[in-house]
Amino acid sequence: MKLLLLLAASAGLSSAAVLKQIRDESPAPSRMLRRQYVAPTTNLTDGDILNYALTLEHLEDTFYRTGLANFTEADFTKAGYNGSFYNNLKMISSDETTHVSFLTSALKAANVTPVAACNYSFPVTDPKTFLATASALEGVGVSAYLGAAADIMNKTYLTAAASILTTESRHSAYIRAQLDESPFASPFDVPLDPDEVYTLAAAFIKSCPMSNPALPVKAFPSLTYKNTSSSPALSNSTATFMTNASSSANGTVYGAFITVTGPIIVPAQAVSGGFSLMVPANVSGQSYVVLTDSNMTVSDDTITAGPAIIEVNNPSSPKTSWSHNNIMGRLTTKEHETSRPAQSLI
Question: Are 55 and 215 within 8 A, CB to CB?
């Protein structure tokens, strides 16, 4: 949010005007409260933030290299994608490797010990699950850099992080398009704080080298969206989230959908193994939900579980009907059957 307001100021706009425009475009529905977001109180140094970013880049780099080693171009062709798309995935993988090298060099130049790659476990069994996981990871990467940007003090590091952020955003848009999901589902991306991002990353991390410097981040209890179909959740519908987290001290639990203007807090109804929530009308695309014991603020002190990732489809949005119309590397049915390369504009 601070970064957004700084950009607004440079454009000659008042902070109040920018916030009013955002809120006017995203009116909060009744019974759903937009409340204050409290940033974590941990004082992260620039070295901490770069190592935090490197932790994520190691994860993405390993994910792509492992996936492309396990699945061949023929596997992706059989799944309905052509050689152009497979080659683009290799370029995305190369970008992630470059990000690892860049951040490692930057940390060494600053006399900060860089973290090494960890051991990971990815829930990938075929090209379809590979792409679904890739889309989620790229979205988290965008939110991670966006959330950390305002805390970077060194302008050179800030520019470098912003450069990686825009690249991750293009990765995300491209992969979402291949999944027939809007590459620009929302006017604003969602910032996540380091603890929220680390919670999501921790689900893939099995162990890390003992020599890695400790990062001042923590993982909250896990929260997962229970998707009973292969389709995205719909706004103004009920979604169920599963967790092993214990109830809050006061016994009251709320759900909070994180947005750039602050969380939208909704009542949480206890169900077997978790809670059900009403999806707000003004969230769309890859969204994030946490459980909190406060209906006024969301902070590291009030979060009891999450975040969980949920893909939201807003039927009232014109972006819902977006389609790439087979121009970005996807094979048509006839081309798939004859195994002929499809024309690609990429």
Answer: yes
Residues 202, 326: Cα–Cα separation, whole Å: 35
Q: Cα(161)–Cα(166) distance, rounded to whole angstroms?
A: 9
Sheet holding 274-278, edge to edge: 224-225, 238-242, 274-278, 269-271
Rounded CA separation 153/44 (Å): 10
| Predicted TM-score of the model (pTM) | 0.81
Residue 254 and residue 294 in contact, taking contact as beta carbons nearer than 8 Å: yes
Query: Which among 13, 15, 119 is positioned nearest to 5, based on CA atoms?
Result: 15
| One-character DSSP codes across 42-65 | ----HHHHHHHHHHHHHHHHHHHH
Q: What are the CB-based long-range contacts (under 8 Å, 24+) for 341-345?
A: 341/82, 341/83, 341/84, 342/82, 342/84, 344/82, 344/84, 344/85
pLDDT digits (tens, 9 = 90+) for 171-210: 999 999 999 999 999 999 999 999 999 999 999 999 999 9
The Cα 254–Cα 248 span in angstroms is: 10
Instruction: Measure Cα distances from 1 to 22, 32, 259, 276 in Å.
Output: 11, 21, 10, 28
- pLDDT per residue as tens digits for the range 264-300: 999 999 999 999 999 999 899 999 999 999 998 899 8
